[in-house]
Each structure stands twice: as structure tokens, then as C-alpha cells.
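SAMPLE LOG
Freezer: B-3
Tube label: C17
Construct: single chain, 279 aa
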Amino acid sequence: MAGFAAFWREIPSYIDPVLFRLGSFELRWYGVCYFLAIFVSFLLCAWRVKRKETTLTRALLEDYYFWVILGVVIGSRLGYVFFYQWSYYSAHPLEIVLPFQFDGGVRFTGISGLSFHGGWLGSTIATWLFCRKHKIEFWKHIDFIVASVPAGYAFGRLGNFLNGELWGRATESAIGMVFSNDPLGLARHPSQLYEIAGEGLLIFLILWPLRNKNYFAGWIFCAYAFFYGLVRFGIEFFREPDEQLGLLSLGLSMGQWLCVGMMGLGLVLGLFLYRRSKK
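STRUCTURE (predicted):
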């Protein structure tokens, strides 16, 4: 048992975040996992199209995913900039879109810093624009898409784990892991794995079996907003707060305050859409 505990603790040190290298080019597991996140969501939706669970065609679905990928990328980047690092990027605006750091010279850094909440907003706006262009009912369409999102989301958090980032708070319990990128070298909660289980698999198991229930248009979107906010709010107590922000008012992290907003939106919007459906 002691041997397994030691192995568990050091698992991150056995993981190379780079899948393969070719000269100066690196393909990281992080990128592969984010591709899988979108691909898994697409496959589930394509399967439903084939089963005639929607009036959407395969061609229209493929077009939609082009839109939503743009929405996720732009939204998640801007969300990180405005929610987590505005003081820095307001002074270095070029670094928002360019993969270089200009502070004291020029250094290639890649585009680092993404926010789920920003990606969620960006994808929602992209979905609205797509539906408006193609004259598709927005709430029914977004319900159709959102049912598959938690399954893909799990792969995104797996990418964070394999990349050795977004680890949890320090712990003395046996579940703690030591992450190679942690300058303090402390055993920490593997909060990325908690998020895979909670925000990914658990919410998927709640929503997917109910995907064809027509309670009211928009109910899956509202349920996802509420349940994601609720589960993420709890897991944030085990996740290390962003270094540049720390804990905010009431001892809550930025992620938790954003989740409060998601829960509130899910409840208020859900009540509004439900009442509207009864008129």
C-alpha cells in the first residue's frame, strides 16, 4: 500500500507533456486533448444527427462547429485577459493576440492563458450568430449541442493534468500529488481529476440520458449553467487560486464568483423560459 501511495504521489513526474518533438516543433498532449474535446462533442452530435434526433444536417453541423471553435478560442482568450490578467494585458495589448512577450525584450511564449467562462460566453455568442444567419431556433439548437459538451470538457481538463497545470491546493492527505511545475514542490490536490469527474463525467451522466426531454426550449442550457457552476464552485475549494489574484471577497476565488454568476443565470433564465413556454 505504501508503494502505491508513493507511486500515486509522483504520477505527474512520469508524464512528459510533449507527445513528440520535431526540431523546434513540439506537439503537446495539451493540444491533443483540446482537439479531442471538440472532436468528441462533434461525434456525439453527429451520431444524433444520424439518428434523426434533430432537423440539423451533417453539413450544417460541420459549419456550426467552425463557428463555435472560433467563439471558444476568442472567448476563452478574452475571458482570461479580462477576468484574470487585465492589469497586465491592458499595459501589453499586443500580447493578447501575439505569441510573444515584449516585457524587457521579445520572447516567444505561445498563446497562454484561457478561461472556461470566457469560452462559454464566446461559444454562446457564436451559436446565436450562427442560428441568426441560418434562421435556426436558438434555444432548441443550443440545447442539442450542450448535451454533448460535458463529455468533451473532460478531455480539456485531462489536457490540463497532462500539462502539469491548474493543480490544487496543498494537502497532507494520501490523495496529494507533486507536480513538476510547482516551484514549492508540495503535494497538492489533483483538482484537474476532480474536474474531469465532476464537471465532465457527472454532468454528462445527468444531462445525456435526458437529452430528448422537451421540458421547455433552453432547459438543457440552463441546467448545464447551473450544474457546472455548482460543481465547479465546490471543486474550487480544492484548486489553487490564480497567483496574481488570490482569493477575493468572502474568501472566494475568481472562478467561484464566475460560477455564482453561472448558477444565477441558469436559475433565472430557466424560470423565465419555463414561464414563457406556459403562455
